[in-house]
Every structure is written in structure tokens, then in C-alpha cells.
Design goal:
By secondary structure, the protein is mainly α. It is 61% helix and 0% strand. α5 packs across α6 and α9 packs across α10. The chain starts with a helix and ends in a 5-residue tail after the last helix. The structure holds iron/sulfur cluster (SF4).
Length: 223
């Protein structure tokens, strides 16, 4: 159980940090269209952000909704995403994904965790981001970096100390109930974990949550 005062301070510090340091310029951060969020999540799997940013707009201009993508040929999809690599597998997967949404959900991305994770190529992380940013639901988004940050702050250890379930529970309990606040908070934790709470040599001295971080209070010699 996290102390309410600590949780509130953590939320506030993350939101303040995100307002000035967050990755606001990423094109999928400024949309609330579930299809756009889903496409970004699928394209970003095993691929660098900069590579996807170059392809993302072009992809959505050509395939603005699941039905358009479902009716395109694999060849055409492959041509649009070629620079990302693994284009054969990705193009086939994307087409399959779009066909299922077009046929089973009448062309609309389902705002439901269980239905989302049944889609090909969609796991908990992508599903949560779609629900958070595309469906207005207050969901945490938890990747490997966020697991590390939350494990350090609230348990004072590095992964694989706490179980994934424990970390998800912490993330859920911290996520604000208002969807706009949840979006700022979840993206803030994601960016903070990647940029500041690094695997080696985390930047604790300049970290906005260092006053509530159990790991930092234990290992203050880290710079
Ligand atoms: S104080 Fe250090 S260990 Fe704790 S969250 Fe910040 S960067 Fe990570």
C-alpha cells in the first residue's frame, strides 16, 4: 500500500516534469484517434522511434482507417513500411489486424482490453495505450523502463525483484482517475523512466521524484 501523500507527490512531480521534458513532439502523442494510436503501437514494436516517425504520417494518409488498410494489397502495405524492416511479416500482420477490425468490429477499434489483446500483434502495452490515449480510459502504460522505475521508487530494488503483477498494481493505483490527467501521468512516467531512470547510472540527482525514491535513499552514491 503506497502512502497517499507519497503517491500524490509522485504524480505531481511526474506531471510537472512531463510538461517541460516530455516527448510531446511525437506525432502519436497529439492524437486521440484509437486507430492512429494502435498503428503507432504496432509500428513501434522492435523499431526505433525516429524510424517510425518518418513513416507514420504517410501510413495514415494512405490508410486512414482499418477498412482502407484491409482492402489494400500486402504489396502496397509493404511498400509504405519498407524502411522499418521486417516488412513482409509486418505487412501481412497489419492487413490481418485491419481485416479483423473491419469485419468483427465494423471498422472501429474496440475500446476493450480483452478484445484488444486478442488482435494479432497487440499485447498489454499497446492495448493500454489505445485505451488511455484513444478511448479516454485512465490506464497505466507499463514497459520495461517503467517496471524498473516503479520497482526502484516503491520497492527500492531493481527488476526482477517484484513480480510484473505487483508493478502493474502499483501503476494502476497511481494513475489519476481523470483521463486527461492519466494521459499526462502515464506518458510522463514512460518518458521519465527512459530518459532519467536509466539501467546504468540513473540520473538520480536531477530526478524529479528522488525525494520519494526508496532506491535513491538507499544508494545515494549513484550519480
Ligand atoms: S531517483 Fe534515481 S532510481 Fe529513483 S526514480 Fe529517479 S532516477 Fe530512478
Amino acid at each position: 500500500m503506497i502512502d497517499l501523500g507519497v503517491a500524490e507527490l509522485f504524480r505531481r512531480r511526474v506531471a510537472e516534469w512531463y510538461s517541460t521534458h516530455g516527448a510531446h513532439s511525437l506525432p502519436w502523442r497529439s492524437t486521440s484517434n484509437p486507430w492512429h494510436i494502435l498503428v503507432a503501437g504496432v509500428l513501434l514494436r522492435n523499431t526505433r522511434v525516429e524510424q517510425v516517425a518518418k513513416v507514420y504520417q504517410r501510413f495514415l494518409e494512405r490508410f486512414p482507417d482499418p477498412r482502407t488498410l484491409a482492402s489494400a494489397s500486402v504489396d502496397e502495405i509493404r511498400g509504405v513500411i519498407r524502411s522499418l524492416g521486417m516488412q513482409n511479416r509486418r505487412a501481412t500482420e497489419l492487413k490481418k489486424l485491419a481485416e479483423i477490425i473491419a469485419e468483427r468490429f465494423r471498422g472501429s477499434v474496440p475500446c476493450n482490453q480483452k478484445l484488444l489483446v486478442e488482435l494479432p500483434g497487440v499485447g498489454d502495452y499497446i492495448a493500454s495505450e489505445v485505451l488511455l490515449a484513444g478511448c479516454g480510459q485512465p490506464k497505466p502504460i507499463v514497459d520495461r523502463n517503467v517496471v524498473r522505475l516503479l520497482s526502484r521508487v516503491f520497492m527500492g530494488v531493481d527488476p526482477p525483484g517484484p513480480s510484473a503483477r505487483d508493478v502493474w498494481r502499483i501503476a494502476e493505483s497511481l494513475t489519476p482517475r481523470r483521463s486527461e490527467d492519466a494521459r499526462v501521468f502515464s506518458y510522463g512516467v514512460l518518458d521519465l523512466a527512459r530518459a532519467v531512470c536509466r539501467v546504468r547510472k540513473p540520473l538520480c540527482v536531477r530526478c524529479p521524484v528522488n525525494t520519494v525514491c526508496s532506491y535513491y535513499s538507499r544508494v545515494r552514491h549513484i550519480v
